[in-house]
Every structure is written in structure tokens, then in C-alpha cells.
Amino acid sequence: MANFNQKIKRIGVYTSGGDAPGMNAAIRAVVRVGIAQNLEVYGIHSGYVGMIENSIQPLHLRDMANIIQRGGTMLKTGRSTDFMKPEGRAKAAAHIKAAGIDACVCIGGDGSFRGAHALWEEHQIPIVGIPGTIDNDIFGSDKTIGFDTAVNTALEAIDRIRDTAASHDRLFIVEVMGRNSGFIASHVGIAGGAEEIFTPDGNVTVEKAIEHIKEGILRGKTSSILIAAEGQKPGRAYDLADSIRKKSGMDAKVCILGHQQRGGSPTAADRILASRMGAAAVDSLLKGFCDIMIGTEGERLVQVPLDVVTKTEKKSQMDLISLANLLAT
Ligand code: ADP
Asked: What's the gap in Å between 114 CA and the centre of ligand 1?
């Protein structure tokens, strides 16, 4: 966490990295709270790509009309390899300063926050981060913007799959997003009544899953759903199905939910979280705090230093996985 003394008159807002439903609600809150506090608010397009290309424009109250219900991000998002280099960041910082922007709000994931931290350290641009990612894998915040929507989108699909699984007495493996984390998988698994949940950091093995399914069959179960986080290799569910077939002779159908989990209209919970975080980010900058992320601890909003956020791993909730397992008997 850092403090700065300079009085701010103009702020910038950008979305960066993976998009998440609710980012628009956060942009809207930053713009409208900023303007209510007599600030001018500028939008930076496509995250650090737009900073380097000088794609920066003023945002007005009416630009924010009808965006709260839309998924994606009206500012667009991007990934920039140039920004990973000091020269790229120097160019980006020069454009921010030339536009008269005194401070920024960065809506993104931990990569975006590493970039924001570097802009403060190297160029003294005060930035407050808002965690926007469907994966919920950001240390320092119980919840990230987009996670609730992604879980509900996946759950809707799983409920439909359950109808067909039950009608045909079938075993299904549903693959959800989550490259390094099992948050979507564990939440969807428990809410969708899954038999077994495979996460990148979990300890469920194919053997254990087979044993669990067979025990269920003995108790009269005729269909089962397994949830798998994609891990490092999207399509992992096919490997799991193959392995189950080879080891048990059971035939498992695979359904990969993929990018549909990223899109769609944000849930009320995500819109409210994004609105609160957007307002708190502007408030923090006005009080002279920067190099922090706005996070949640239960219902409370908290400020967490960006270098703590980016250097600490958020662990999956293994208790949810064991509970799902226990409840799917
Ligand atoms: P997310 O913010 O969703 O984690 P990325 O990891 O792709 O997404 O990061 C978004 C962008 O942030 C990258 O394209 C890059 O420009 C910038 N970034 C990521 N890591 C760093 C870093 N260590 N230093 C500076 N910039 C970074």
C-alpha cells in the first residue's frame, strides 16, 4: 500500500486480461462516482494495449447508459507483451501523463495488477485495482467480479445435462474453466450435486472416482456427474473419460462448457459487487491511497497491497470438495 499527496482531477479506467461479466458495472460505478466527486474520467481502451497505443478518451455519464446488464467490457480488454518490457511501460506511462491523467483504476486479474504495481514503482502513477476474473483466484478477495455469473452459467448447463444423464442412465464428465484453480469446479460441483470434482490442486484420482461411482450404483444410483476443472490442458475431460473407460469399462460422455462461461449478463451479486468496488476504488484514490486492490472479506470491502495480492496464492476450498463428495451419496 502506498500514499500519494497530489490532488487528483482526472482519472483513467481500464479493463485488462481476461474479460468477466460485471466489468461494465464496475466501469459505470467508477465513471459515475468519479463525476459525482467532480473528477473527469477517461477510458483507456484494451488495457495496456491502449495505453501503449494512446487510445484514451473521455467518458461521460451518458456513455454509461444501458451497460450494467451487459457481459464483456465496453472498454475492450487486451494482453500486451510490449507492456511486459520496461520500454513498453515507459511509453504507456508517458501517454497517461500527457493525457493529464493523475491516477487510474485497473479492473483485471493478477497479471494486470502486476502491471499496475510496476507503473506505480517505475513511473509513480497511482493505481487502485478491482479484481475482475471469473476464476476467483485472486488472493485478498473472497469474491471476484464475474465468478458468481460464471458459476451460475455453468450450473444451468449442468442442470440440463443432469436431465439427459438421468433419462439415459449415463455418466457425464463436465469440464468447466479453471486453469490453475478449482473455484468454479468446486462451487458448481456442490451446487450441481456432482459425485466427484477434479481440480488442478485437488487429490481426487480416477481410481477414487470409479470407486465412488460403483458404490453409488450399488446403492441404486443410475446416473452420475463428475466435474473437472480444465487445468493446464483444456479438453482434459476426454483424457479422464478415456482413463475411466480403460480402468472400469464404464462409458463416460463428455461436455466441455468452454467460453460460454465467460459471457452473458452478470448476476445481481456480480453487479452489486462491481458497483461497490468501483465506488470504493474512486474513494480510495481521493483519499490518497494507491498500489492496492479493493477486495472483500465476507460482506466487508478491504484494501490489500498489490504486491501482497500478486505474490500470494489463493488456495481452493477443499472442504467444499469433501462436502460435495459426502452429499452425493
Ligand atoms: P489477468 O490480468 O486476467 O491475470 P494477464 O495475466 O494476461 O491477465 O495479464 C494482463 C496483462 O497485464 C498482460 O498482457 C501484460 O501486459 C500485463 N502484465 C502481466 N504480468 C505482468 C508483469 N509481471 N509485469 C508487467 N505487466 C504485466
From this structure: 6
Whether residue 110 has its Cβ less than 6 Å from ligand 1: yes
Active-site option among 19, 102, 135, 148: 135
Q: Is 73 part of a structural domain of the chain?
A: yes
Question: Of 263, 279, 300, which closes a domain?
Answer: 263
- Residues 143-153 have pLDDT tens digits of 999 999 999 99
Nearest to 284 by CA among 58, 99, 104: 104
pLDDT in tens, 177-225: 998 889 999 999 999 999 999 998 888 899 999 998 898 888 888 889 9
In a domain, 31, yes or no: yes
Total domains present in the chain: 2
* CATH number for 84: 3.40.50.450
Distance 111 CA to ligand 1 centre (A): 3
- In angstroms, the CA 158 to CA 192 distance is 7
CB distance 145 to 130 below 8 Å: yes
Domain carrying residue 174: 148-263
Q: Is 135 a catalytic residue?
A: yes
Span from the CA of 83 to the centroid of ligand 1 (angstroms): 8
